[in-house]
Fold this sequence. Notes:
There is one protein chain. It contains 18 helices and no strands. By secondary structure, it is mainly α. 22% of the residues are buried.
Amino acid sequence: MFDMSRVIEIVVVAVVLLSTVFLVWSSYTTSLLGKDFWVWLPFLGKMAKWSRGDERTGENNDSPETLIPVEKALYDYYKNGVPEITRKSFDQYRKYLVLAKQSDRKPMSRWTWATLFGLTVAEAFGTGALIAPLVSREITPDGALFIGAALALVLAVITLIFTHNAGHDLYHNSLVSHIAANFRQRGGFVVGGHDKPVEAIGVISPDMDQDKDELNAPLTRLAARLEIITLGDAKKKYLNIIAATTLILLAFVLSTWYRHDELNKHLDSEAVGMSSAPSSASAAGGTQSFQNMFSSPSTTGAAGDAPLPAAVAQAAHQSQKKATDAIISDKKSANDVGVLLLGVIYVFTQFLGVVTGYKYGFFGGNAEKAHKETMGYPAYDTFLKHVVKPVSQRATMRMTTLRNNLSSLNPSYRPGTFDFMKMYMADARPPRETVDSGDQPAGNGQSHEASGWSDEQMRALAEKTLSLPSREERASFVTSQNLSRKDLERFQSALTAAKEKRNAAEPAALSQEILDALGD
């Protein structure tokens, strides 16, 4: 009979459970959905708190761009979690990932983790239920189910850790092997401007100029970003690979053997039961099969039974044994196929864990940092469109609501200008840069103002200027160098020469535009 109350109870429990999971998730997540939920939540949300205002409500008299504390709190809340990165820094991090051979890599998503974990648990559950009776022969079915689930969870976690780390190590070894092989073949790291390879190089981090070693060989640039600065640093990792392989093979062999042994024991017991079933049926007064109606020369059963001749009875017995053996043999063959199939599924599941480990993740913390800053987007405009713009739209919408609430609270309140994107770009603006001292020739310890710039320094300044993405940033960067009139003339020549060398797709009058922006 259909129990409506039971259905309602299940639905209520499911809704409560899902709501609890969502609340816990949204309280810790930095996603726009989770953040906006805690603003929108009636009575308890942040909007309710902000809308009560503070001591400065209505005192926005400094400038149209000035935000009162609650407005600033809303802006900061939505801005937090979004990487504050300029176009130049974005391009620098992106180039680092390209040179480090990790531009197409990313962390494994939650859904992939959940799917892989579910497959591993499902497969391990069978193994756990198989092992559970070994804990105690007196265990109940419910107890076996509970112990099997616990064992499955433990096996799944251990297996995932080893297989995923083994995949990481395989990717690590593939990069290291290329670098080490090239080092041995060339006799060292191939560095531009040197007649012969060198034994050691410097590390290039994501925060450094990625063009400073552009004359070096590609594998030398790769090694510098993977922090492999000598041949001794090119070490392969085998611990997780050996551990995962051993675990997979051991679990496959033992579980397959145990399944096979237990099923064969069950079939042997079934065969004994089939052989004794006719006699038992006769003793109970039941109906026997024809070949066993007279299983003995003399009759001890019910009246009316008559014995068959001995030759016929023996032939009937052999026929029954042959039929029983054929049935059991077919069942064993089918069980062997099933056991083997379960083993193949287990190996495939673990192989999938290794593949995902190889595909996802990064070589070193620097690559992970660079990916976190760029969030995996190939261009800065794409990053702004998909990451910053949705946050800007949502923050602007909530700011409008907040200001309406504040206006109703205090009629003298005067809202100012709010441009989330403009404020974000201003906050993301990096400090002014200077040419790295490591790029300057040794022995030149005098200041630029006192002794002027050397030709090498001027070329480095021109190259760095060309690498900046916008005219405003180029002008700001050159201004910060405090060049004299004579050095500005030399800079113009160096800029023109650097532009021709790099074949940049910029107007021919670029150097003049920069100088015009600086002013005469």
